[in-house]
Recover the amino acids of this structure.
């Protein structure tokens, strides 16, 4: 098995090459290590190898993983945030990438005011229009920004996030990444604000994302390999399982059914 430091060196080399093609500085691009379904040992390994940002999709997974991990990394929530988990998310995460409505921003502002917090967020944009994806419509971003500026003093918006449609060909993602960058640039010009962060690009298309302006790329499989298979096991306390009755796989096709609840999940060989 390859050493993680070697893998990261190769990935950073590809990022540097993409930056060169786009006339950008590699210093403007950071890797978010997506450790979804992996244990705290992977977080620790990533930290030791020089990665400084951990990305998690689920609040409940970070609940057990963060305390068990090394102190030091920033923790970013990159998955959908339900309004009833906002308080817990603000306790756990340094950054939220997935604010997808003015209503959610209001909730974050309300809880942050109660906690004395100053959350930093990105607005998630569904550039592709796919119904299966979270995120607001591109035309809703400006009014949401204006709403947050006027009604959510606790919340700082630092940029935009998107996911491209799945494709085996990375070039298929380029129009979506370019549209997000152009949307961001237009908002900065018309509103006179700074939106320096663009969170876009994953293991299959991060080089294209960097060419199109990504400042954060969210990488899991390319760093850590395929996600481990997970199986729901019956909770002893109540005889039930939060993951459903059937085995689920925390990989392509199984993400929606993965609960992230560490004590009720075991890794399958």
């Amino acid at each position: 098995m390859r050493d993680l430091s070697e893998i990261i060196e190769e990935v950073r080399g590809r990022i540097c090459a993409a930056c060169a093609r786009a006339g950008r500085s590699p210093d403007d691009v950071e890797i978010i290590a997506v450790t979804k379904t992996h244990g705290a040992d992977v977080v620790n390994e990533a930290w030791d190898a020089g990665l400084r940002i951990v990305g998690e999709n689920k609040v409940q997974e970070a609940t057990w993983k963060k305390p068990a991990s090394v102190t030091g990394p920033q923790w970013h929530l990159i998955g959908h945030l339900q309004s009833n988990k906002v308080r817990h998310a603000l306790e756990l995460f340094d950054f939220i990438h997935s604010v997808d409505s003015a209503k959610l921003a209001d909730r974050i502002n309300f809880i942050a005011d109660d906690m004395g917090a100053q959350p930093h967020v990105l607005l998630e944009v569904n550039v592709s229009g796919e119904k299966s994806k979270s995120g607001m419509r591109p035309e809703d971003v400006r009014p949401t920004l204006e709403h947050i500026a006027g009604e959510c003093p606790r919340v700082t918006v630092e940029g935009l996030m998107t996911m491209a449609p799945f494709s085996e060909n990375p070039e298929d993602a380029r129009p979506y990444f370019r549209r997000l960058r152009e949307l961001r640039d237009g908002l900065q010009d018309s509103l006179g604000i700074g939106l320096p962060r663009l969170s876009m690009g994953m293991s299959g298309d991060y080089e294209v994302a960097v060419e199109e302006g990504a400042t954060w790329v969210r990488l899991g499989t390319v760093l850590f390999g395929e996600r481990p298979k997970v199986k729901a096991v019956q909770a002893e306390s109540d005889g039930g399982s939060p993951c459903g009755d059937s085995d689920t796989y925390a990989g392509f096709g199984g993400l929606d059914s993965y609960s992230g609840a560490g004590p009720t999940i075991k890794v399958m060989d």
Observations:
- The two ends are 16 Å apart (CA to CA).
- Residues 37 and 202 are 16 Å apart (CA to CA).
- The chain has two domains: 4-226, 228-269.
- Residues 232-258, 263-269 have pLDDT under 50 and may be disordered.
